[in-house]
Amino acid sequence: MSKKCRFCGNELRYTFADLGMSPIANDNLTSEHLNRAEKFYPLHTYVCDRCLLVQLEEFESPEHIFGDGDYAYFSSYSESWLRHAKAYTELMVERFKFNSASQVVEIASNDGYLLQYFHQKGIPVLGVEPAANTAKAAAEKGIPTWVKFFGVNTAKEMVAEGKSADLLLGNNVLAHVPDVNDFIGGMKIVLKPNGILTMEFPHLLQLMQQNQFDTIYHEHFSYYSFITVEKMFAAHGLTLFDVEELSTHGGSLRIYGKHSDAVEPVVSNRVKQLKAKEAAAGLEDIETYLTFGEQVKATKRKLLKFLIEAKSQGKRIAAYGAPAKGNTLLNYCGVGKDFIDYTVDRSPYKQGLFLPGTHIPILHPDKIRETQPDYVLILPWNLKEEIMTQMAYIAEWGGQFVVPIPEVQVYPAIQQQVLSTIAS
Q1: Considering the domain boundaries, does residue 33 fall inside one?
Q2: Are residues 282 and 320 in the same domain?
Q3: CA of 411: how far to CAs of 33, 340, 388, 408, 419, in Å?
């Protein structure tokens, strides 16, 4: 059966990267499930030769991944992400003058990590969040939240309830949407005539240039360049008038949109500049996308070589974090408990569980000090500076950090100046 592009309907014939078979990345296991069969699905990305959208097939529904009431990711457990959210709030209020008469709507609002800052300023907010457990955490912060998936139908309900948006935002949600036309169509409906929308998502250019193949997992249905995403929004009567390149998640874009018939704001020069940058990198040429797979295989070999040599020398290795990207990395590379003793995570919602596929136990961060491993493999490498600061005490026993992406790098914890180098 032929596969069709989820945006333009074109037949998908070209492979971007084939990462083999993998479980759903955030389906952490309880001890009772360790001896039961797990579902593995193809983690095979394609690129459309018409619109150049990089995409996965849909094997598990969004309802299973996000809407079963037990979603594992809570945004508020990352201090750097909270700082990012607060800075975004200040920027939006300063640039667009949102106030107590405005309505801010966030799609995929998680645990209220961002809307809380608008709420503190007395600006009306509404979250739309499919995961009941994270929505409950938001409600406990005083953030009104609809427990729904967003699309055309939800947008119509919001308009009927008087919840049209002056500012409509979504951070790291666009990649999670299988029906992108329904999603963007809903944004068109709920955005006020002179409203502003912003979306943040990992930048495909950075994924390719920085070898971030572990950000490919079943929650992420699509991977976006600016060239492609501009076409998608334009097809629904929305114009992208500005764009920022961000450092978050290994390199992200923040796009700014408006209704195409709105006079203001005018289109920024940054739009033209980024399109030129992507074109120079070959993102308008299908051949560019077809070389990524070999790059991924080389990284797998380098990581395995490092781990094999470390274990042959009797070194003890623990990991930090239980992110979805870490599960892609471990399952694709075949790294299990024979290499990694355990991982740790600050989120109590993950502690006591086991990583899918590899069955590596997730423990409290205190376990690091207790067992004093020689190496700590940082799985959420996008937070490496924050984690190295938190875990600097591993220098007491000569412990070192290992960062696997873009390729294996070892950082002695005693060299604190490394942190500023990494940050830059």
Answers
A1: no
A2: no
A3: 36, 18, 9, 10, 9
